[in-house]
Every structure is written in C-alpha cells, then in structure tokens.
Amino acid sequence: MIFAAAAVAAASVAAPGSAQVTGDRALGQYLSSECVTCHQLTGKQQPGIPAIDGKPAASLVEQLNAYRTKQRPNEVMQNIAARLSSDDIAALAVYFSSLKPRN
Amino acid sequence: MTTNRRQFIGGAGAIAAASSFPMPAIAQAKAKVVVIGGGPGGATVAKYVAKDGGVDVTLVEPARRFTTCFHSNLYLGGFRSFGSITHSYDKIAKAYGITHARQLAAAIDRDKKTVRLAGGRVLPYDRLVVAPGIDIKFDSVPGYSEEASKRMPHAWQAGPQTRLLRRQLLALKDGATIVMVAPPNPYRCPPGPYERVSMMAHVLKARGHKKSKIIVLDPKPNFSKQGLFVEGWQKHYPGMVEWQDPKMHGGIKGVDAKTMTVKTDLAEYKANLVNVIPAQMAGKIARDAGLANQSGFCAIRPESMKSTVDANIYVLGDASIAGDMPKSGFSANSQAKVVAMMVRGEVAGGRTFPARYSNTCWSLIETDDTVKVGGAYEAKDGKIAATSTFISKTGEDAALRKKTQEENMAWYAGITADIWT
Q: Are A39 and B336 in contact (CB under 8 A)?
C-alpha cells in the first residue's frame, strides 16, 4: 500500500529564483533508471559526464529542453531527450533535484 | 465431465487468486524472484528488483567476480588494467539483500517453477529471469573447437581468453601476421571485432612494428561503424589492416590450430596469431529450457522482455531477440530496468510504465579517437523498434573525438557503478 500512496502523489520542488516544477516523482524514478547508466549518483563532477543529482529542478528542465530541441550538442543526450514529453522532463527534474548527493 | 457456469467462474476466480501475490499487509512469504546469470543484464535486474524491498531475490552466478566484455578491448590495447574491468558481487549482495547462489544453474523446471543448481539444491520461483548471455558455436568455423581456442582464442567471453589473447599479441615480433575470423550476425557487440582490430593495431604500432599485418576475414558484406573504422585504420595504421568481405575471400573454409593456418576459398594464411570469433547462440540453460527458437536465441514480448513461451519467465540481454537493439552490455542494462519494473509490478504491486529502451556503443580506434553509435527503442509492431538513432561522423575534429573518449570512460564508470554497487 505504501507503494501506491507514494506513486500517486505528485511532488513539487521549488527552484530558487524560478517557478515551481511539478512532476510525478515515481515516473521520474523509473525514467531516471535510463540516466543512471551513465550519470553516477555521487553528486561529484567528473570528466566526460556531469553529475545531475541534487541539481535545481528548473535548471534540469532547461537543460533537457535544450537537448530535446537540439540547441545543446551531444547526440546521446539529444537522442534520449527526443522522446521525453514535458511531463517526463518535469518528473525527471523533480526526482533528480530531490536526491541529496551521496558524498 | 461437464463444466457449468458456476464452476467455471469458481475456477477462474481460483486461478486469479493463486496468481495474485500477497500484499505486505497480509504478511505472507515474500515473492521469490530467481535471476540466472550475473552479467550486465542479470545483475542489474537483481539489484533493481531487490532495492525497493519486499521481494526475495536470488542471483544464480558461479563467479565471485565478473569481467566485463565491454572495455575488454581496451585491456587488450593497454588502455585499462584487467582489474579495472572486473567487479565483485559483494556490494550489491550486501546493500540490497540479494542472495548470491554461487553455482551454475543446471536445469529449469517450468512446470514446477523451480531452478536446480549444479550442486543439487532446488530453488522455487514466482518469477524467473534468464540472462545467461551467449554460448560460442565452436563448430560454426570448420576445425575450430574449445580445445583449439587455447591456441586460437575467441576472447568473446571476457576472462582467461582475453588475457591469453593479450599475451599472444604482446609476444609478436615485427613482420607478424594476425588473422581475425569475424563472426556472422547476430552476435554480441556489433562494433567489437573492429574495435579489437584497432586495439591490436595500436599495440603493434606502439611497439614499433613496421611490417606486421592484420587480416580480417569477414562472413559479412559490411559491418558496424564501417566508414568510421576504415577511416581510422587508414589514418592511424596505414597499410596494416586488410579487411576482406566474402567476395574477396570466397568463403572461410576452416582453421587448423596445430599449424596455425586459416583457409579461405582463395587463399591459405599461415598466421602468428589467430583470433576466431565464431557464431553465437543463447546460453545453454535458456536453450535447454525450451526458451530459444530455431535461431538459437529467445523470443520475447517487446513491451516487457517476457518470454513468448512462458509467462513466468523473462529473458534479456544477449540471449534474447531484442529487435533493433544490438547485443551489448548497455542494451542488457537498459532491458534489465524494464524487466525489474515489470517483475515488481507483478509480484510487489509496483507501478509500471511503458517500456523504453536505449543503447550507446563507444569504440576506441586510437588514443583519444573514439566514435559512438546509439539509439532509443520502444515496443512497436510486435518488436523492439528504434525510434531514433545516431552515429559519429567521418572527419570529426580531434577535440570532439577526445571528448567522446572521455564520455566513453565516464560511461564505463557509470554503468559498472549502476550494476555492481
């Protein structure tokens, strides 16, 4: 029952200096499984692939939209973002921004 | 015997009750999920099913540590240590409460829903995940055998074979002939043989070879990232690599490990190193359980990776027929997340979403010169179909290629952390 309750609740995150991002955190968690193949959940910057956990939701939305519209280069990210809906992006942003970097 | 309406409804109800799993509130035994195979597919499923709790997960895998096929070419080329491509199961077993049964799975009894281990122990399951990877079809190349692979390594399952191939490569003197017998489709890691050619050429070049040659005898008329590899070979290793398609060699007739010769319809090569990569099939346990079709691989439902022949079994990774997805560690890891979600949906009341898959394969051609190919995939028209794809372009500048190599190394760190921590 815990699963169902957590799953249905949509979470929202207030990003500093910007509008609130509202999204389905459970959907974000599932979609995030694709991201964490490459992005480690350490919160640490490393060469090649940046950390995305614990970043502000509004910033994540902005970056993913830039990949989706191919304004930001990198074919791997453009390819992944191409099929994300605005709801998917909001869900991912809410999920990743809610994580506390592990270190 | 006749069945009246009342009995029929009763029967259907009974079946429904038996197949729906007790929710935590009823406090009955946890659902049992058994995963066969601890590669990037199986280990990822085990972790993702176990990490949210409420399910009893057993990973059946004889090895204590796993050496990845991906980046094993980088070990061959001297870009990575063997230790850096080898990963222990201890962390995920401990962190997520996975039982690691360190034995080979001997047989699956689909009627009784049990797996028998080589030592005789029988594990019951509610859902079974089969991720055994590939078996090598030794007899697909005349004269080749498991015994012959001790002199002519395939090195297509990472481990002792990979180290043997590296030792043989390092022992070569200038003027050596390397012959690679490339595999027919479908096989694990489509760009892998050609990245391997690049890594062998890198080692020869770095060791000052001027006259050594690498001859690739290919049963296919073309191969993955061909334009990118051919461009890279000409740029970095001019005159060293000779790739022959079936029109050029006329057919691969066989190998002789004693004399170290490879025969084609048109020539006979006496070689100092022979790397035979034969045809492949799903691991034995999957074939023995009747999960594979005539192709030697296992048909699955594209929306879930569930076996088309058994609703209690999922098959993923290289053993499965995954439509447009290549057989790769990345693909297996991606499929594993769909499987884990679907399994939790069935046995733990987890929420499920439409399956999405993705893959990227990076290939190192020479130091700081890396290319990539990838795609996004979904269930469509009865198969896993590509919804979009991309590939590096010929003539890209050095800065971009270097950045792609940094991405490649970071991806390896990321995916192995995702699977084994």
A: no
Beta strand extents in B144-303 (DSSP E only): 177-181, 213-217, 241-244, 252-256, 261-264, 268-270, 273-276, 280-282, 298-301
Tell which residue, B157, B169, B156, has the closest CA to residue B78: B169
Q: Which pLDDT score, from 0 to 100, does residue A46 have?
A: 76
For residue B224, give its domain range: 138-278
Last residue of a domain, one of B278, B297, B332: B278
Q: Both tokens of residue B121?
A: 């122990």
For residue A89, what are its two tokens?
């992006």
Q: If you count them, how many residues does chain B have?
A: 421
pLDDT bin (cut points 50, 70, 90) of residue B13 is very low
Q: Number of structural domains, chain B?
A: 2
Displacement of CA A80 from its chain's centroid (Å) = 12
Specify the CATH number for the domain of residue B166. Answer: 3.50.50.60
Measured in angstroms, the CA of A21 and the nearest CA of chain B are apart by 21
Domains of chain A and any CATH numbers: 9-98 (1.10.760.10)
> Does A47 sit within 8 Å of B410, measured CB to CB?
yes
Q: In this structure, is residue B290 part of a structural domain?
A: yes
Which residues from B are below 8 Å from A80, CB to CB? 358, 376
Q: Do B410 and A75 touch (CB under 8 A)?
A: no
Contact with chain B for residue A3, Cβ under 8 A: yes
ipTM: 0.84
- Average pLDDT score, chain B: 94
Q: Which residues of B touch A83 (CB under 8 A)?
A: 356, 376, 378, 387-388
* A1 closest CB neighbour out of B23, B356, B413: B23
Residues B255 and B176 in one domain: yes
Which span out of A15-24, A41-50, B2-11, B93-102 was modeled with the highest average pLDDT?
B93-102
Determine, yes or no, domain membership for B377: no
Measured between CB atoms, does A85 come within 8 Å of chain B?
no
A27, B387: Cβ pair inside 8 Å? no
If asked whether residues B165 and B125 sit together in one domain, one would say no
Q: DSSP character for A101?
A: P
Does residue B58 share a domain with residue B146? no
Q: Do B155 and B123 share a domain, yes or no?
A: no
Q: In this structure, is residue B35 part of a structural domain?
A: yes
Residues of B in contact with A30 (CB under 8 A): 337, 341, 351, 353
E-strand ranges in chain A read 11-13, 21-23
Q: Model confidence over A53-88: pLDDT tens digits? A: 999 999 999 999 999 999 999 999 999 999 999 999
A46 interaction partners in chain B (CB closer than 8 Å):
410, 413
Same domain, B88 and B210: no
Determine the pLDDT at residue A5: 41
Say whether A40 and B417 touch across the interface (CB within 8 A): yes
Res. B125 pLDDT band, cuts 50 70 90: very high
